[in-house]
Amino acid sequence: MFQPLTRPDLGKTWEDARVYLRPACFVDRPHELDDDCLRIADTLIWFAAWHVSLRDTDGIKSAIVPVPELDGWIAAMPDALAASAQAQRAAALRPRGSLQLGERVVRLGEPQLMGILNVTPDSFSDGGKHVDTAAASEAGFALAAAGAAIVDVGGESTRPGAPLIWEGDEIQRVESVVSALARGGVAVSIDTRKAAVMEAALAAGATIVNDISALRYDERAMEVVAKAGCPVVLMHAPSAKSDPHEGGGAYAHPVFDVYDMLADRVAACRAAGIDPAKIIVDPGIGFGKGVADNLALINGLALFHTLGCPVLFGASRKRMIGALDNEAPADQRLGGSVALHYQAAGQGAQLLRVHDIAENRQALRVWRGLRDAALTS
Q1: How many CB atoms lie within 10 A of CB 284?
Q2: Contact predicate 197/173, CB 8 Å
Q3: What does DSSP assign to residue 149?
Q4: What is the sign, positive or negative, of the torsion defined by CA atoms of 279, 286, 23, 65?
Q5: What is the number of helices (H) and of strands (E) in the chain?
Q6: Domain residue spans in the chain?
Q7: What are the φ/ψ torsions at residue 331 (nearest 5 degrees)?
Q8: What is the topology classification, in CATH, of domain 98-376?
């Protein structure tokens, strides 16, 4: 049940209380509000209020606080909460700049597409389509030609119930494909949780590591990424074990629980020497989360900007779309996929991981046209 938050509540918190600031009340024409609105990083998204939530042993209380009034609310907080709130505000507003991926530069001022290339026989949507090097490479070049800024190559399915495969087999699946795409000028990320696969793919020309375990599955993964100096995607999954979906569905509050885990992983990466500017976060739609959890995460996506990292969002063809549309099969979820990624773009997501590049690219062009028209008309 919703509980309203008032300023006096902030002075009555338990020692382990946490505060969360989520950009809210988005505006299309910020120039009409002067200093009464702020911009998320260097995106095209402005907002006029913060959704302030206090979480302690009494539950969660929230309030909508207009941008000019936040300093007064922070002044009412105990020192630890005030420091957290100030850090979150600064992190949300700090420009993210660009990703330097070999010779390619991916600018994050507007949403960029990451194309999914599964070199697997058993992925939930497109398993078996690209199992040989020639077919996979051709598909990867097609994704880039259609507008993918990055092609994400994966050699192991992580769908519910998928078997774990040996790292040598995974390397054999992806190495030649990564090499072919990189030689052809494509910016490639490697979708893996295994350190040996990361090393092989980076040596073959990959420039990003995308790890569904947020560098928790393999004890060497953190070291590999830190040594390589490459960008890394930290995704939330409830388990770092063989089945990443294990233990899901027990969230006290899905948005804050996922946020807390990613905040811990960002801190761990920074402590290990990974450049904060090269850390990307992903809330992990569908991994150990029910439909209600996923919807809450999508509606609360703007909160993740307060981690100070680019946000990657991926809901392409996922089961929640079928659950909301009469159990539509994976190959009939394009409309829902586009709708979800359009929603993410409207909350400032910098990277969208999708199967269908052309259709999502068209949606983003329309989205950008609407943003430009609002800003200039």
Answers
A1: 27
A2: no
A3: S
A4: negative
A5: 12, 14
A6: 7-93, 98-376
A7: -80, 5
A8: TIM Barrel (3.20.20)
**Does 353 participate in catalysis according to the annotation?**
yes
Instruction: Read off the tokens for 159.
Output: 């769908």
Residue 179 CA to residue 102 CA, distance in Å, equals 13
| Contacts for 133-137: CB closer than 8 Å, 24+ residues apart | 133/176, 133/177, 133/180, 136/177, 137/177, 137/180, 137/181, 137/184
* Active-site annotation holder among 173, 333, 353, 371: 353
Answer whether residue 104 shows pLDDT above 80: yes
**Among 313, 265, 322, 324, CA closest to 285:** 313
Catalytic residue (choose from 318, 319, 333, 371):
318
Would you state the pLDDT for residue 371?
A: 95
Could you count the other beta carbons within 10 Å of the beta carbon of residue 311? 28
- Sign of the four-CA dihedral 304, 297, 334, 366: negative
Q: How distant, in Å, are the alpha carbons of 17, 65, 79, 258 from that of 74?
A: 14, 11, 9, 24
- Among 289, 341, 253, 297, residue whose Cα is nearest residue 53: 253
What is d(CA 38, CA 246) in angstroms, rounded to the nearest whole number? 39
Give 66's strand partners.
49
Share of the chain above pLDDT 90, in %: 84
- Count Cα neighbours of 354 within 13 Å in the Cβ-side half-sphere: 33
Looking only at the bridges linking them, the beta strands covering 46-56 and 232-235 are unpaired
**Among candidates 352, 374, 373, 370, which has minimal Cα distance to 147?**
352
**Are 205 and 188 in contact, with CB atoms under 8 Å apart?**
yes
C-alpha span between 42 and 38 (Å, rounded): 11
Contacts (Cβ under 8 Å, ≥6 apart) of 268: 215, 222
At 263 the pLDDT is: 98
Task: Work out the pLDDT band at 243, boundaries 50, 70, 90.
Answer: confident
Q: Which of 118-122, 270-274, 313-317 has the lowest mean pLDDT?
A: 118-122
Distances (CA, A) of 252 to 13, 59, 157, 236, 249: 19, 10, 28, 16, 9
Residues 110 and 42: beta-carbon distance below 8 Å: no
CA 225/CA 221 separation, integer angstroms: 6
